[in-house]
Amino acid sequence: MPATRTARSRRRTLAAVAALPLLAVVLGACGYGSESDAKDDKVAPAAEGEKIGDLGEVKIGYFANITHATALVGLQEGLIQKELGGTKIKPQVFNAGPSEIEALNAGAIDIGWIGPSPSINGFTKSKGQNLRIISGSASGGVSLVVNPKKIKSLDDLKGKRIATPQLGNTQDVALLNYLSDKGLKVDTNTGKGDVTVIRQDNKQIPASFESGSLDGAWVPEPTASKLVAGGGSVLLDEKKLWKDGKFVITNVIVSQKFLKEHPDVVEAVLRGSVKTNAWINANPDEAKAAANAKLKADSGAALPPEVIDPAWRHVDITDDPLASTLSVSSEHAVKAGLLEDPLLDGIYDLAPLNKVLKAEGKPAIDDAGLGVK
User: Fold this and answer.
1) In angstroms, what CA-CA distances link 206 with 18, 151, 218, 225?
2) What is the pLDDT of residue 30?
């Protein structure tokens, strides 16, 4: 991982270039399921007790994806609802970041679990007016998986066809940056070059890989483990490219309007998130089962053991949004020619999270200088 720029440059990270309207469509971490009302009414605990601030419901978005384990487990086990009392959670499942950002902007959701690229894009497109990142959720869980018959080492990538979930999404930016560092040239928009980068939905990648039309894919969990179960081999765990093996893959965002009008509700959701993360880390097997039950409720099918077991081990659950790695990721997008270099000052507001952490006897978390002033 190349060294970061000056403190000022690290704060000046992402603005849309002329292609931003396109990026607004394509940026985002991809999951399973589809954008629809979550089908978890049969398993979701009832809202009981006093409403917080007399608010009837809070609308929460997330992906049916292992990297969104906090949301999956917190909803399945009722750990978030418990903190909200009589304020009912209205959940919504999304396939990709752009639709979740659109929902946040439209008021269709108030709080969401989402990847770093759509968070950055949403913040910069609105000139810093629509959202704040208020917590971390997950780190890691991304791999380059290849056909071992076609690619035996990282030196064999030239001339191969490698998939990412979307043009400009978190994994796409990571792959483009990695190839550039290895001296391999790729046209960012077309994906053509020394390596052919194929942008394809996570749900379609395993079938394309099995058919032989792809030689590999740089993808998050559980897609990576699905490819391995289908005969693929992990050539590179993205953790190896980051200091201490940590980088943000999922964080929590909130509408600035909702944060201003309902700070107590936001704090309650964060209490639920922090308690869920603690429970996941203390009870990994039970948490894995809870996440799989929620995946089944949301998408109609649980993941088989050969997929969920390695996928679960590959993702690290954390309250820390790993703000410095968000800056580095956006620098990679600038380097790839997808984005310019603007200010990200104010994208974080970790005051509510740090209040919750203090009450739990845990240390405060740093925003890398990108917090509200």
Assistant:
1) 33, 17, 12, 10
2) 38
| pLDDT value for 47 | 85
Q: Rounded distance, CA 179 to CA 197, Å?
A: 10
The residue with tokens 């992402």 is: 14
pLDDT band for position 7 (cuts 50, 70, 90) = very low
Please choose, from the candidates 84, 26, 22, 30, the residue with its C-alpha nearest in 3D space to the C-alpha of residue 53.
84
Does residue 314 have a pLDDT over 80? yes
Q: Which residues pair with 236 in a beta bridge?
A: 144
Residue 52: CB partners within 8 Å, gap ≥ 6?
84, 85, 86, 87, 262, 264, 265, 268
CA distances from 65 to 21, 74, 299, 317 (A): 26, 13, 10, 13
Tell which phi-psi region holds residue 28, choosing left (phi > 0), alpha (psi between -120 and 50) or beta. left
- The CA–CA distances, whole Å, from 174 to 1, 10, 197, 236, 326 equal 11, 17, 12, 12, 12
> Stretch 52-65: mean pLDDT, rounded?
95
CB–CB of 309/229 below 8 Å?
Answer: no
In DSSP terms, 16 is beta-bridged to: 339
d(CA 318, CA 222): 18
59-96 residues labelled b (16+ CB within 10 A) or e (exposed): bbbbbbbbbbbbbbbbbbbbbbbbbbebbbbbbbbbbb
Q: What is the pLDDT of residues 342-360, one digit of tens each?
A: 679 999 999 999 999 999 9
Decide if 79 contacts 294 (C-beta within 8 A).
Answer: no
CA 210 – CA 230 distance, rounded (Å): 7
pLDDT of residue 354: 98
| 250 token code pair | 């999922």
Computed from CA positions of residues 252, 257, 263, 269, in that sequence, does the dihedral angle turn out positive or negative?
negative
Q: How far apart are CA 110 and CA 223, in angstroms?
A: 28
Q: How many CB atoms lie under 10 A from the CB of residue 5?
A: 16
Phi, psi (degrees; rounded to nearest 5) at 290? -65, -45
